[in-house]
Write a structure and sequence with these properties.
144 residues; alpha+beta; two-stranded antiparallel sheet; 3 helices; globular
């Protein structure tokens, strides 16, 4: 399934902030856990309420690490998933620090540190085992 992807508009207060190094005043706690940029947190809470009202439960991040990620957390996750050793037919190859990194077999891809919108507090990964959450989000994401 090809998902509709729309560009994320960078909030003005993030224009001069280094990804993964957001100051505390640019982070807000969300339910049930994690942190986001205040505008993203507001949208998340509204979307989560609407999902619950539509019977989509649970509606939560897959983990705390799937909301705002510090640069250090992104680097740690990236290095756990990628290796410098070439892997034939790797499903994801990234360039980082001037070197090619190959996704280890069986692991999900991850953005190169400093390039993820998680590093800006603008993304939440939501798990979905049966497709219901994903379909609801596709149908309703423009509202939030």
């Amino acid at each position: 399934m090809k998902l509709p992807v729309k560009p994320v508009r960078l909030p003005a207060d993030l224009r001069h902030i280094e990804p993964g190094k957001l100051p505390n005043y640019l982070l807000k706690s969300i339910r049930p856990y994690g942190n986001l940029h205040p505008l993203a947190a507001q949208a998340w809470e509204a979307m989560r309420r609407a999902a619950h009202q539509a019977g989509i439960r649970p509606f939560k991040p897959t983990s705390v690490a799937d909301t705002y990620r510090t640069l250090e957390a992104q680097e740690k996750g990236f290095m756990a998933r990628y290796t410098l050793a070439p892997i034939a037919n790797s499903t994801s190859v990234r360039t980082w620090r001037g070197q090619k990194w190959y996704l280890k077999t069986g692991l999900a891809p991850m953005a190169t540190p400093g390039t993820s919108i998680h590093n800006l507090g603008l993304a939440v990964d939501v798990s979905d085992a049966n497709g219901l959450r994903l379909q609801w989000m596709i149908d309703n994401c423009d509202k939030y």
